[in-house]
Amino acid sequence: LLSHFSSSGFWGLVNNAGISTFGETGWLPMETYEKFADVNLLGSIRTTLAFLPLLRKYKGRIVFMSSIIAYFTLGNGIYSMTKAAIEKFCDALRLEMKKFGVQVCIIQPGNYARSTKIQPPLSAEEIWSELSEEEKAVYSKEYVQERADFFNSILSEGSTNGSEVVDAMVDALTSPAPKARYMVAKLKEKALVLVCALFPTAVMDSVLSYALSK
User: Fold this and answer.
1) Please, what are the domains in the chain?
2) In what order do the strands lie in the sheet with 61-65?
């Protein structure tokens, strides 16, 4: 792999691959958790390790696609989990790479579901059919329907202007002084992140519980 770039140099790596799904913790089988960790977290780490020698040699850039969902979750904790893990991996890597002149940047988009199609709408029937008998005994079909309607409504509110995120990625790769984090999100999404960062966990839990009940 390294021999292909040895003469021309290697400047930037963008770790963009990701998958998403919706569901409460017990609704998803262990195989799904393993798949998400492998793609969203370990996939980025594998790629980073493969190109690290070249990035150090040419003082390049590494860009990671995170999400504001790294700070809170609204029904897709499995996706949130992987993004929070990527954030911590990047925090360690950014500090370690300073001595080599390699800069590490994180892109934190808000809801761009309609731009990326990362998450297709899910029907209550699809979700119900995948539940274990134990989960079916705890949750009603009506509850699953409410959660599906809620999550699908969030998807429908996603921005269609995906170029905003691409612009942030380009800046991270080309700016003489790139930011460590680029939050590309609506004002209300940024406000949620601010509440999460500044207020006690109980306050954030109350805000999210209220949102989930609407």
Assistant:
1) 12-186 (3.40.50.720)
2) 12-15, 61-65, 103-109, 181-184
